[in-house]
Specification:
mainly alpha; 78% helix; globular
């Protein structure tokens, strides 16, 4: 990054790294780990619909960290999302309690993750506005957080599978490695774009992109994987999307209101002080001219 941008490398002290970066990285690792773990039990459709409840927890932690103000409209948003979450999981033919709990836990941790990420990337004192710098500092701790889950759930199967370490055909190994690399590149691009959105714009843009991504994922899952969804599940998901869309609209409305010019007492006092100094300067210049004229008469 230093050779590419010409800017000095971002170096954080250990105290800042452990207090600010470490909680964000561990929350990100748990969010990713629990989300991927849930795919062993539930379908992509149920995962996508349940993961959309992350907005609920983002609102909750935004209130805790005072990034949002408590308004009656937020209560309506919470009720819509909670009601939609209940409807699209009610009597689902492909519902699995263990996978549902894993995704819901990932959504809860995701609320902590994105709240801490917003604080981390939007503070100029840390210098982590560039998403590459953010990922560079977070990846080591994310690996430490994910490695125990990997060893516990996939370590033995991965070490004994014939598709990787105990392969018999080179084409099978090549296919597995290529699939893993494509997934890794897509995950890197997704993480890069998400950090870029949070650091350069706001959670408003991220919410809009998240709604579009969830709709596309559901359509692909139903058409390609054959996931089954009843009309009540679809209705619940639409109610949930209405709650998310209402939150987006309200956030845009309030952000416009916050951009209006505000006059504080401090600014007024500074302006008065400058005006007083200017008047004193004019008076002193007039006195000096009067003295000069008196001396030369």
């Amino acid at each position: 990054m230093r050779c590419w941008t010409g800017k000095p490398r971002v170096v954080l002290s250990w105290s800042v790294y452990l207090k600010r970066v470490a909680p964000t990285a561990l929350a990100t690792a748990l969010d990713v780990g629990l989300s991927n773990w849930s795919f062993l039990f539930i379908t992509v459709s149920l995962y996508t619909m349940t993961k959309s409840s992350a907005v609920l927890f983002i609102l909750l932690f935004s209130l805790v960290f005072k990034l949002e103000k408590l308004r009656p409209s937020l209560i309506l948003v919470v009720l819509l999302i909670a009601g939609g979450l209940f409807m699209f999981t009610y009597e689902s033919t492909q519902f699995n309690l263990e996978g549902f709990i894993l995704v819901l836990a990932a959504s809860f941790i995701g609320g902590i993750r994105w709240t801490l990420t917003q604080i981390l990337t939007q503070k100029a004192e840390f210098g982590l506005q560039n998403p590459v710098d953010t990922m560079y500092h977070m990846q080591p701790l994310m690996f430490i957080g994910l490695f125990p889950l990997f060893v516990l759930n996939e370590g033995l199967n991965l070490s004994t599978t014939e598709r990787l370490f105990r392969y018999r055909d080179a084409s099978t190994l090549l296919y597995t490695v290529t699939t893993l690399m494509i997934g890794g590149v897509l995950a890197f691009g997704l993480g890069f774009s998400e950090f870029l959105l949070v650091s350069k714009t706001s959670s408003l843009t991220l919410s809009i992109a998240g709604i579009f991504k969830e709709i596309c994922t559901l359509l692909l899952a139903t058409h390609l994987n054959g996931d089954q969804m009843s009309w009540l599940n679809w209705l619940g998901f639409m109610v949930c999307l209405c709650g998310i869309s209402l939150h987006v609209v309200l956030k845009a409305y309030h952000s416009k209101g916050d951009k209006r010019p505000k006059f504080h007492e401090g600014e007024a006092s500074i302006a008065d002080m400058e005006l007083l100094l200017r008047k004193e300067g004019v008076n002193s210049e007039e006195e000096e001219d009067a003295i000069f004229d008196a001396q030369h008469r």
